[in-house]
């Protein structure tokens, strides 16, 4: 029986709403109110660390309890401000917003510039907030280091798809960094090790569920570069055995160098 074509729903979340969500996020941060800041987030909330480790927060009270603005102020910080932001993907209830912001001291001097792609989602109740933050980090001013990182990140992404199409669970899992995070369908899933990931995924079950035979990139863009991490925005399509396109999805990968290994640290997908 032929597979049913998946049709993307009409976008309900607008570009303006996605940008407003990250502006609310920044404004609440500058208010120095843990409760106000936590209220701009969507839950479960996750902020994957480029060098490994993450915490998944179930609700706003747990998140607010971990914020220490006194410690932030001790670094000299007094406010933060976006210097750029743009929506790179927009869907029914999800958007990826690539933002660059600066931290400033009280005298207006800059502390540093950070690069983050924000995963903005709309829940079933219509509430819009930031569900995850994929931080590429400080870019620096060494073009050679940035170019090296970009080449390594894109090679990792290609290896990921190649091993996926080969249905090679071990090689596929090896293209990831751990703990690994996936943000999809309003939830957050984590895997501690490659063995956990291999045990979790079943290619035969996946193929039967979607009528899938192989996938291909429609577009690849390195949207944020740092020496140790790169945010890569992608569009991919799934195909059946007759090369008929089944579905097309947006996705975002945070690719990091962890203990010398370039791997995909976290993913945010519009796919289920």
Instruction: Report low-confidence residues grouped into runs of 5 or more.
Output: 1-10
Please state the CA-atom Rg, rounded to the nearest Å: 19 Å
The H-and-E topology, N to C, reads as: HHEEHHEEEEHHEEHHEEEE
User: How much strand?
Assistant: 35-45%
Number of strands: 12
Structural class designation: alpha+beta
| Helix content estimate | 25-40%
Distance between the termini: 22 Å
For the report, how would you describe the main beta sheet? 6 strands, mixed
Q: How many individual helices?
A: 8
Report the mean per-residue pLDDT as an integer: 93
Global morphology: globular
User: Strand sequence of the main sheet, in spatial order?
Assistant: 2-1-6-5-4-3
Describe what is shown at a glance:
This protein is α+β, with helices and mostly antiparallel strands.
Describe this structure in words.
- The chain is an alpha+beta fold.
- Helix content is 28%, strand content 43%.
- The protein has a six-stranded mixed β-sheet with strand order 2-1-6-5-4-3. It has a six-stranded mixed β-sheet with strand order 8-7-12-11-10-9.
- The longest helix is centred in the middle third of the chain and has 23 residues, at 143-165.
- The protein is globular and about 60 Å long.
